[in-house]
Design goal:
It is built from one helix and 16 strands. It is globular and about 50 Å long. Strand 1 and strand 2 form a beta hairpin. The strands form five sheets. Strands 1-2-3-5-7 form a five-stranded mixed sheet, with no helix packed on it. The protein has about 200 residues and is mainly beta.
């Protein structure tokens, strides 16, 4: 058997470790936050074609900036209850990723977490999520999205260039793009710029 490839990936150094198995599972273990990276600098980046699934074990609190950027073979991600934040571009340009559930305890996200995931068609935003930052789902093929009432802020361009997006359901009491005060109605349109929605169901 191939010996798994491993190393450290913690914001505090060796507080977190990573291991890639010969079956393509990348496991992140330890306690605390992952280290943030620039695009292409994650320690497993050169192995990304082998990464089919990511398992983030309980104890990790923050998933790193561009941690899994451009992992084109990635189809499955396991997120534990301990994770409260995704940093910028965490899963951007993961072309094999087709579905994702944002857990309720994730209270903060950086910009562009799923930007450019060209086959991401099924997203569940759990009740408890409070913010959808800029470019979160930009250039993805989503056709519909349900936004829970817990969401209190949707940033401009959150769904930019989602050309197949036609249906938006908001489970709150008011139009979600207008809870971004002081945005006016013209600015608010940019939340869904270059989409094909005819309206928002509230």
């Amino acid at each position: 058997d191939t010996v798994p490839i491993s190393g450290t990936c913690g914001a505090d150094g060796d507080n977190l470790t990573w291991k890639l198995s010969d079956t393509g599972t990348l496991t992140i273990s330890g306690t605390g936050a992952m280290k943030d990276y620039l695009q292409g600098e994650a320690p497993w980046y050169d192995l990304r074609a082998q990464i089919k699934s990511v398992v983030i074990e309980n104890g990790i609190t923050i998933v790193s900036q561009f941690g899994f950027h451009n992992c084109d073979a990635l189809t499955s991600v396991t997120i534990p209850d301990s994770v409260t934040s995704f940093h910028t571009g965490t899963f951007s340009d993961c072309d094999a990723l087709t579905s994702f559930t944002i857990p309720p305890q994730v209270k903060s996200m950086g910009q562009g977490v799923f930007t450019g995931c060209s086959n991401l068609t099924n997203v569940t935003i759990s009740a408890g999520v409070e913010i959808i930052p800029a470019n979160t789902f930009a250039s993805t093929p989503l056709t519909s999205i349900t936004i829970p009432a817990s969401v209190k802020n949707i940033a401009l361009y959150a769904f930019y260039h989602c050309e197949k997006l036609t249906t938006v359901n908001y489970l709150g009491l008011e139009d979600p793009v207008m809870i971004n005060e002081p945005y006016n109605k013209e600015e608010a349109k940019r939340v869904f710029q270059d989409c094909n929605i005819s309206g928002i169901t509230v």
